[in-house]
Amino acid sequence: MIEFVEIGEPVPADHSRAFVQVAQGSRIMWHMVRSCGDPEAGSNLRTVDEFYPFEKVSVRAKHYIEAAYEHLLMWADHVAPFKFHDEQVVNFSLRPTFTLARAALESAAQAVWLLSAEGPVECVRRHLCLIRWDIAEHRKSAADAAHKERCRQRDADLLARVASRYTEDELAPPNGYLDVLKHACLPVDLALNAADIERLWRAASGAAHGKYWPNLELQRTVVGVEFEPGHFRALTLPDSAAMVEVIEAANAMSQYAALKYLVFAGADPAALMGPASRWLLEHTTLSEDADPEVLARLAADRPEGWGDPAG
């Protein structure tokens, strides 16, 4: 059973199912990405790696996706542990949910923006922008001058290496995570709206940073006794619909990035999904009333309707 941590009130059944679907779907997709080897000859990622054979686009893209799934797998281990018993209760609070969702969104959005480029020249340009952003953040974190200088030199070496193709202005780092998130929402086949993502990201950032306003926007308040004139005891309960919205958005961004990576690497996602689903089935404690149709789908070699590779 899934409950809110403060009062033990059960999460609505449809929201609980949504939580579990994100958890199990994340495990399957993570397994698929981890099972994908180096990009195949002739694939989009092999082509772009050959165009820029230094810091490989394929390696960085996979890193962003795996980073997103590290956060979603922590969510999965909390909401739907592999092993559980009938009396086990999973307690939820607001801020960890939004914090993990925000981290997954930010990680996956980098891969989506990178892999949505038109052609290898633009893909590498975005790749180099992200690398320069990473170097700049690494430099800021350095405590000693020598470390900072090494970071500056890495940036200078990168710019010199590609000076015949790109100007320094063309390789300016993104203007923060919100900028990347908005650009990641541009693909027409990704059902995420930039305005909605900004709203969710700001709420998740506020929740993660301990701001007060998420208490007002993302929770329900039950007013209790007046303990001082004009001051009342209050009980707050997270809005589970808002929690579903943010974790599903993080899942959608991460899943889109993962599938795009697999296709661009020359892999067959349907062929990878069968083993991943069976792996999940083998590692999960099943309830006695588990739906036989769901179990059959998980045990299949390929998802129904995903086509036959021989066809």
UniProtKB/TrEMBL annotation:
UniProt superkingdom: Bacteria
Name of the protein in question: Uncharacterized protein
Organism for this UniProt entry: Amycolatopsis mediterranei (strain S699) (Nocardia mediterranei)
